[in-house]
Design goal:
With 101 residues, the protein is an all-alpha fold. It has 2 helices and no strands. The protein has one domain. α1 packs antiparallel against α2.
């Protein structure tokens, strides 16, 4: 299903963003002298942490959407089962009334 492929691609994208940002933070912290183009290490690390936070929020939103979809499907199934059950009871009641006459 295409929608599942899209969701999986987004999930992998956000996970990759998290991995890259965490790796950048690790490099900044372990080799601050080797990162000459980033003289403000604190700002650079803060930017990477922001990337992680945003990607995690997006992953959480995907999970929330999936849970909501599952809940809606389960609720629909439960509602349909209740309707089917009520129709069966009505049908059995009509048969009993017909047999008694």
């Amino acid at each position: 299903m295409l929608s599942q492929q899209i969701v999986m691609a987004l999930r992998r994208k956000y996970e990759a963003e998290i991995d890259c940002a965490r790796t950048n933070v690790q490099v900044y912290l372990e080799h601050p002298a080797g990162v000459a183009e980033h003289p403000d290490i604190i700002s650079s690390v803060d930017t990477q942490i922001q990337i992680v936070a945003e990607a995690r929020d997006k992953l959480q939103e995907i999970e929330d959407m999936e849970m909501q979809q599952i809940h809606q499907m389960t609720t629909r199934d439960s509602d349909q089962q209740l309707v089917d059950h009520n129709h069966q009871k009505e049908g059995n009641g009509n048969q009993k009334e017909g047999n008694g006459k």
